[in-house]
Amino acid sequence: MEIASGLLSSACQLAWGPVCQQLNYIRKLRENEETMQSEWRTLSSRKDDICKNLDTGHARYGKKPKAEVTDWLKKVEKIEEKLDSLGSGSANHMCCKGFCPNYYSHLKRSKKTVGILREVKDLQEKGKPFAERENLFIDSLPETSSSLPATTLHGTSAERKKEEILQCIMDPEVGKIGVYGMGGVGKTTIMRQIYNQLKEEKDDFDIVMWVTVSSVFELAKVQETIAEQLGCPLSSDETSRAMELSQALRRRRRNFLIILDDIWDVVSLQTVGIPEDGNGSKVVWTTRFMDICNNMESQKEIKIEGLTDEEAWSLFKDKVGGEDIISLEIKPIAEQVARECGGLPLALITVGCALRKEKQLPVWRNALHELKTSSTDQIKGMTKYVFGSLKFSYDRLSSDTMRACFLYCALYPEDYPILVDELIEYWMAEGLIDEEGSIQTEKDKGHAYLKELKDACMIQSDRDGDKYVRMHDLIRDLAINITREQFMVKAGLWLKESPKEEEWVESLERVSFIWNNIEAFRGQPNCPGLSTLLLCDSSREPVTFSDTFFKHMHNLKVLDLSLTGIRSLPDSLFDLVNLHALILMGCHKLECLPSLAKLHKLRQLKLKNLYSLKELPHGLENLVKLRHLDISCKDRDGEWGEDRDREWGSFPSGVLLKMPRLEILFMDDRRWSLSYGGNAISEDSSTIGEIIRLKKLIEFSTDFADVLAFNSFVNKARESELLRNLDFFRFTLSCKCEGHNVENERMDEVILPVTANTLEISHCNFIRLSDSFATDDLRYCQISTCKEMKWIGKDGEIVFPSLETLHLLFLDRFEGLCKEKTHEGTLKNLRKLHIYSCQKLKYLIPYDFLVNNLQNLEEILIENCYEMEDIISVEASATMASLPKFKKLTLSELPALTSIYQGKLVCDSLCKIEIENCPKLKNLPFLRNNVPFVGMGFEVSDKWLWEAVEWADVKELFQPSVAVLDEFTRLMMSYVSERPMRCHSRIMIGKLHPHQLQYC
User: Fold this and answer.
1) Helix (H/G/I), strand (E/B), else coil: 71
2) From CA 949, how far away is CA 763, in angstroms rounded?
3) How many beta carbons lie within 10 A of that of residue 809, not counting itself?
4) What is the structure's pLDDT at 117?
5) N or C: where does the chain have the smaller number of CB atoms within 10 Å of the terminal CB?
6) Region of residue 811 (phi > 0: left; psi between -120 and 50: alpha; otherwise: beta)
7) Predicted confidence (pLDDT) per residue in 25-35, tens digit
8) Which residues are within 8 A (CB) of 726 and not within 5 positions of it... i.e. 6 or more apart?
């Protein structure tokens, strides 16, 4: 019974559980429906939000939803379908004619509701990540073309530029890069290579875009090009388009690279819609103009230059059809043709293709002649492709004045280093730069013009920094082609015969015969519009002109006959009433000049180094508009002579007072050097009195016969503020004062003008370097052949607190820089110290002076000091010292030198050491603070010295970069070292321009 009872109880419990569950479904039907409706509303709202984000992402940014998002939405739609089929109000269904509820219907509906509720909650959970927009989309863009057509890079120079650009692109600190260079140099080719490489790798940038801008910038077209590659439709409103593009680029999960090719004017990235807020994204553009890079605020500018001669020849041979096409007879001409293309790939390709498989020698000779004479009409493609491309840059110059200044450069010979100051003076005399204010103001404008031409790659810097510029051969050919009717350019041709009279056509405006051997200019050219005639730097043989040669050149403004063999000039030249510049420098055979009285419009008169001229020309008093007068004369080796065969006497009285506009006066010439002469120097009627009254004078040079005359001038000039107004001056004074016996006059102390920055003292044994030399402006000093000088300054006290360069030469009794303790500021700014042939010098720099005063020292050069033992002397035990800016050490012919420094010398900036004939020097003291000596140049005189010295550690560091001087180099160095110097007893005191000081 108990067993049966237990079984019955268990069966009842098992049956009651499901019954209870079914009863709960019926009882909680309304509650389940309300819960389900609430949860569904939440899920439906999330679905609506997600759909809106998907629509926005697709419409604006071309984004596609992830598969899991699409699947989730489909499941939500199915839930919605189930709810629709479930209907509403069925909970009130009744049975038995409405007398009792339909419990079966309630049970069935409640079960469906609970099932749907579970699905809704499950989808809610799975949809939570989709609240974040970045989880909705596939982070990819529609694929654009995989690569752009690009020619092969020719030569290692282009490959190096490509790598340089790639390094900048990968630099996280650089966001905007400007790649510039002249037309046809290969900018686009290099950038296409980079684009294809980064597009293929797909590792560094999520988006890599190429946008061609071209010469006519169309904002809408550029925006559409970017939008197309983004898959982003744009609205019609310009402001909205930029915002839409910016947002599309910003919302990329990774960074982008946009290459803007061929920009001709400043492009506002913000106006286009390209964000500039970093995040590893880059914008690179190519242009012909450096100023565009600056105006677009590039963080790095990279200039693309032409191919080397070897690379150009390789490319040219390839385009001609291979080396087999070029016979031995043709090869030398073909090499010249390739050189005439100036390393410009576009020109090499064009000319090479025009001569492809050409085997006739006359055709090659004609092509070379065409290129040399800038007449390339017969070379297929040159006018259309090469000159057409380059002329775009010419046309885009900012003004007609800029174009005229550019064309003026074509007057110089091919490959000619154009002196910047000379070119700007030509522009000024021609009127291309308006007269406004002062010569310096106009020169500054000229430098601004040159900068624009350089920035446009129409002209390029040459040697010596900004001192010279040069025209590319093809750019010059372009200029000559443009000016064919207005210019006659026969520069650098070494002609022996002058052009025939019919070649001097009326339309000529400028003519150049620089670098020729023409000895006679005949006829009567009819060139009424001619404004510039350059015959300079030509035959040193006697040059003659017919009497009427200049008769019909009344508009001539610039005439330069410098460095020619002229002995006399025809009277017709001095009827050129519109002449602005007459330049006769270095005409050594010119003996006389007719009167200049008619040249009343003359602004510039240069008569420098006319050694044979017997007297100054008459009529100077009529040159009332003269601004620049140069009548200086030096000996042929560059120094001032002691004696002259003929004396000119004093400068014509009263002439300078009739030149109130004079700004530049160079009259350093012993033929009229200014002497003490009692009180004459104080009289207003004297030459010095006239000079002091020239209110506009800014550059001045002259000679003084003695110290007393110079000191008297300085005192008078101080009162008139002349010295403070001068931007440049150079005064040379003799150190001899024989014949003077003037009480209370000091003849051993020179009054140094406070604005002087240059001082040279030579062969002076009584001149004192006193406190009057302690000027804050003095930056360069050279002292030579002063036999009594033991130390610099009185009682060993050094002055020159701002000095940067100090040369000490042939000082027989010189013992060192300083004898006693020095002031704190002494030589604080010294950068270069050069010592030559000081035979009593044993110890140059005391240790205390080194560490306390010479921390800006960059270079030491010591030669031919036969008793020198130590460069840096120390009394106590040697310790560690430092020269943080020291870069170069040169030691030569120091047979007694045993040590540079007894301790260790830390020189982190050291990059070059040169040692010759220092047999007792056995070790070097140099160290770097945890920095290897990478890239340092180390030169020794010969192999035995390198092998003999005890420089074990240093050898290990320097071995890869040691350069052993060959016999020829050592002989040349010896020749230079032993070359006698022509010096006279004199002092030169000057104020040089900053760009001149850098060459001291």
Assistant:
1) helix
2) 39
3) 20
4) 75
5) N
6) beta
7) 565 667 777 77
8) 697, 698, 699, 700, 755, 991
Strands ordered across the beta sheet of 905-906: 881-882, 905-906, 926-927
Using 50, 70 and 90 to split pLDDT, how confident is the model at 376? low
Q: Which residue has the tokens 């700007």?
A: 424
Helices marked H in 62-132 — which ranges?
Answer: 67-86, 103-127
Residue 969 one-letter amino acid = T
* AA letter at 118: R
pLDDT value at residue 508 = 95
CA nearest 506: which of 478, 477, 486, 476? 486
Per-position DSSP letters for 723-777, written without gaps between them: HHH-SEEEEEEES--TT---TT--SSB----TT--EEEEES-SS-B--GGG--TT
921 CB contacts (<8 Å, ≥6 apart)?
891, 894, 897, 898, 899, 900, 915, 949
pLDDT single digits (tens) 146-161: 566 666 777 778 888 8
Q: Indicate the angle between helix axes 331-340 and 309-320, nearest 10 degrees.
A: 120
- 214 in helix, strand or coil? strand
Amino acid at site 992: L
* 3-state secondary structure string across 133-190: HHHCEECCCCCCCCCCCCCCCCCHHHHHHHHHHHHHHHCCCCCEEEEECCCCCCHHHH
Using CA atoms of 639, 642, 644, 645 in order, give the dihedral in degrees to the nearest 10: -120
3-class SS letters over 246-285: HHHHHCCCCCEEEEEEEECCCCCHHHHCCCCCCCCCEEEE
Q: What is the pLDDT of residue 978?
A: 42
Give the 3-state secondary structure percentages of the chain, helix then strand then coil, rounded to 5: 40, 15, 45
* Model pLDDT, residue 955: 53
Which residues have C-beta within 8 Å of that of residue 359, sequence separation ≥ 6?
325, 327, 330
Query: What is d(CA 666, CA 628) in angstroms, rounded to the nearest whole number?
Result: 8
Instruction: Name which of 913, 922, 919, 914 is nearest 973 in CA terms.
Output: 914
Longest CA span, the chain: 162
Angle at alpha carbon of residue 951, lines to 950 and 953, rounded to 5°: 130
Please give the backbone phi and psi of residue 909, each rounded to the nearest 5 degrees, phi first: -100, 0
**Residue linked to tokens 């069925």:** 90
Q: What is the mean pLDDT of residues 254-273?
A: 83
pLDDT band at residue 649 under the 50/70/90 scheme: low
Residue 442, C-beta contacts closer than 8 angstroms, at least 6 positions apart: 424, 428, 433, 434, 435, 436
Residue 597: predicted pLDDT = 93
